[in-house]
Specification:
Blueprint (H helix, E strand, L loop, with lengths): L2 H12 L19 H22 L16 H15 L2 H24 L4 H18 L12 H19 L8 H16 L4
Helix pairs in contact: 1-4, 2-3, 3-7, 4-5, 4-6, 4-7, 5-6, 6-7
Length: about 190
């Protein structure tokens, strides 16, 4: 594995640290609402991304096809911000964590013939754990997801994420759609489950 791939994979695996959002107090740590802090981080990241695109600079971890389009980092950050601001936390936690850890697993299993079954099972197990253990610990004012719903929602999120991970879209990265599509599916099913 080359250095750029290592940096990209490490960034993926470490990105669930952003979910500290759910343990932050509403006024952040500096007396400013945490939504404003999130928007400032997002604007800063998008400004760096716009500068990179205008100047043609290369950032370690970017793939060759990202030279002419928004990077996976920027699109993943935008997806996370949309999730944090507009979707229920009990869905954001498994959807974002699933994207962060299962997307690299998809890359690996495509080379070892375990795709798509290993990522589907891994995502389902991870989402089940997150729904049952991590979501109840998050402080966003909702009740824990009942295990009967988890038995339906975890595999559903897995299928949605893996289904949109495979297509190679020219301008939209799977770091964005592997997060947003499961959020949309989970939120839509909340009406029937």
């Amino acid at each position: 594995m080359d250095r750029s791939t290592f940096v990209r994979r490490a960034f993926h695996l470490a990105s669930p640290a952003w979910l500290v959002w759910y343990w932050m107090p509403p006024d952040s740590w500096v007396g400013v609402r945490k939504e404003l802090v999130l928007l400032l981080f997002l604007c800063g990241a998008l400004l760096i991304e716009a500068t990179r695109l205008m100047t043609g600079r290369h950032i370690l971890g970017l793939r060759a096809h990202e030279r002419e389009r928004a990077s996976a980092y920027a699109q993943g950050g935008l997806g996370l911000a949309i999730g944090l601001l507009f979707f229920p936390g009990e869905y954001v936690i498994p959807a974002f964590w699933g994207m962060a850890w299962i997307d690299p697993l998809c890359w690996y299993t495509r080379r070892t013939r375990g795709y798509p079954w290993i990522p589907l099972v891994a995502y389902t197990v991870l989402a089940t754990f997150l729904f049952l253990v991590v979501v109840p610990l998050a402080e966003y004012g909702t009740t824990p997801v009942p295990w009967t719903r988890v038995a339906f929602l975890a595999p559903l999120a897995a299928v949605a994420a893996i289904a949109v991970e495979r297509p190679n879209l020219k301008h939209v990265d799977d770091d964005f759609i592997m997060h947003i599509v499961p959020l949309l599916v989970l939120t839509a099913t909340a009406w029937v489950v």
